[in-house]
Amino acid sequence: MCFSTCAVTNGGTPFSLTTAVVPANSAVGTIDPATGLAVCLYDFLLIAGGTDPATGLAADRFCGSQFNPDPAGAAASVPVCSKLIITLIIQILGEYDLTIVISSQYRSNQTV
Questions:
Q1: For 72, phi and psi rounded to 5 degrees?
Q2: Which among 50, 44, 48 has a CA at the least distance from the CA of 3?
Q3: Pairing mode, strands 44-51 and 87-92
Q4: Tally of domains in the chain
Q5: Closest CA to 30 of 67, 70, 61, 68
Q6: Domain annotation covers residue 111
Q7: Domain assignment present for 71
Q8: How far apart are CA 22 and CA 49, in angstroms?
Q9: What is the domain range of residue 40?
C-alpha cells in the first residue's frame, strides 16, 4: 500500500505536522541525528515500514511539512509505501488529544 500527498488548491499544505527541526522540510523518527533535537514525538503519522520506493529510504514516524522518509529531512514529498499489513496511526496531542487508527486487511502485493 502506498501513500502520497495530494494537490491543495486553497493555499494550505498537503502534509504538515509540527516538528522542532526545519519546519519546511520532512522529519522522521524521534531524534534528529544531526542536531540531537526531538522530532515527531507528539504529533506524527506512523506507517510501519514506510519506504520511498525510488531510494529505499525507510522510516516509521513522519512529521514536518513534507512527506518523505529521508532521515536528513527533505524539501519535497515522495510516495511512501509499506509491504506490511497496514495499521496507520495519526497522533496529535495538545488541547485536543486525537489518535486515529486505520487498519487494512490487505497486503500490498494483493489487488484491493
A1: -85, -5
A2: 50
A3: antiparallel
A4: 1
A5: 61
A6: no
A7: yes
A8: 24
A9: 1-106
Of all residues in the chain, what percent carry a pLDDT higher than 70? Answer: 71
Residues 62 and 38 sit within 8 Å (Cβ to Cβ): no
Q: Say how far apart CA 6 and CA 29 lie, in whole Å.
A: 23
Tell me the pLDDT of the chain averaged across its residues: 76
Q: pLDDT by residue (tens digit) across 44-75?
A: 888 888 899 999 999 988 888 888 999 888 88
| Inside any domain, residue 112 | no
Looking up cell 529505499 gives 56
Distance of CA 82 to the CA centre of its chain: 12
Chain centre to alpha carbon of residue 11:
21
How does DSSP classify residue 38?
A: B
What is residue 11's three-state secondary structure?
A: coil
CA dihedral sign of residues 48, 52, 53, 56: negative
Q: What is the maximum span of the chain, computed from C-alpha positions, in angstroms?
A: 42
How far is 40 from 110, CA to CA, in rounded Å?
A: 31
For 82-93, how does the pLDDT look when each residue is reduced to its tens digit (9 = 90+)?
Answer: 876 656 667 677
